[in-house]
Amino acid sequence: MLPHLSYEDCVQLGVTTADVVKSIEELILARAENKMWNAPKAVIQPPDGRYMMAALAACTDPPLLAVKSVVLNPRNSDKGLKTINGVVTLLNAETGLPLATVDGNWVTAIRTAGLSAVAAQYLARPDSSTAAFIGCGVQAHSHLDAFADLFPLQEARALGRGTANRDALCDAARAKGLCAIASTNAEEAITGADLIVTSVTRVVGRKPFLDARWLKPGAFVAITDSAVPWLPDTLSALERVIIDDLEQEAVSEPMVDPGLVKGDLTGLVQGTVSGREREDERNAFVFRGLALGDLALAGLAYRRACS
Q1: Which letter does DSSP use for residue 88 in this model?
Q2: CA–CA separation, 198 vs 201, rounded Å?
Q3: CA-closest candidate to residue 56, choices 247, 199, 254
């Protein structure tokens, strides 16, 4: 049978934020040398609110091809299931022979925070000490872990639709020695924060409610939800917007006004796009998800499991 790395298997591998950042940056540099290829995401959105996605990426060293398939269904909670579920299939990029499958939820959680971490190294202030989380699910926890490794965090603020997830995130922050605050509204959570992470679950009909003018000078925002909860007219308050992939954005409905976008993550890592230039810049990394990140994490897990 094809080997499968479950969520628990992946957790036991001991992958660190440094491991994730290194793996992603290596593939970005390989892409510049035409040794790694990343296809735009394919998406199906049935009228019942489901969101189905497939992502494809491959590299030459090692010869790996990763295909991630994911389904988001808001009704899963009624069945006691996670809202998002998926799997990554790894193939040998030379022969096409299947190598393994990897739990897609683990890959998505860790690679998303990893992409934010890579961007934050270039766009956030290194002395950032206060983080605000709008949305308190899996992505909030993985970003809390990553940002606590990268920055001298002292305070975490949490705002979510349900108290259970919010309180769980606050408990996780306290376990890291941080002051944890359960915010009562979005403006209260964001005002004065150095780092902001938005991971609001996609729901048909939800209206934007976040105002970029609430951001303090010098703030950095990791927008993992395609900017859906942000009021579009306020995003001009951002001095620098970086997206994950210009090629992918060109064939999709824009997440933000293209005139605000300064470049993508590849340009940032390669040095062809500027990172933070002033202490008072309000910067944002806005992304849909990059197949390169799925390959980086699934490949890392597979190699480590085989070692």
Answers
A1: E
A2: 9
A3: 247
Residue entry with tokens 């950032």 = 128
pLDDT at 172 (0 to 100)? 98
Q: What are phi and psi of 213, to 5 degrees?
A: -75, -10
Q: Which amino acid is at 8?
A: E
How far is it, in rounded angstroms, from Cα 245 to Cα 289? 9
Helices within the chain (DSSP H only): 7-11, 17-32, 104-123, 138-150, 163-175, 186-190, 246-250, 265-270, 291-306
Instruction: For the chain of 307 residues, list the mean pLDDT of each consecutive stretch of 10.
Output: 94 96 95 92 91 95 96 91 94 97 95 96 97 95 97 97 92 98 96 97 80 98 94 96 89 88 94 95 92 96 94
Both tokens assigned to 197: 């992470």
Q: From CA 202, how far away is CA 225, in angstroms rounded?
A: 7
Residue 127 DSSP one-character state: T
pLDDT of residue 204: 64
Contact between 250 and 293 (Cβ < 8 Å): no
Q: Exposed (0-12), middle (13-18) or buried (19+): which is 127, by Cβ within 10 Å?
A: exposed
Alpha-helical runs (H) found in 59-128: 104-123
Helix, strand, or coil (residue 198): strand
Closest among 172, 164, 123 to 143, alpha carbons compared: 172
Pairing verdict, β 4-5 and 98-103: parallel
Amino acid at position 57, single letter: A
- Prior bond to 63 cis, omega within 30? no
3-class secondary-structure state, position 204 = coil
Q: Please count the other Cβ atoms lying within 10 Å of the Cβ belonging to residue 71.
A: 15
Q: How far is CA 282 from CA 88, 124, 242, 279, 296, in A?
A: 35, 9, 12, 9, 29
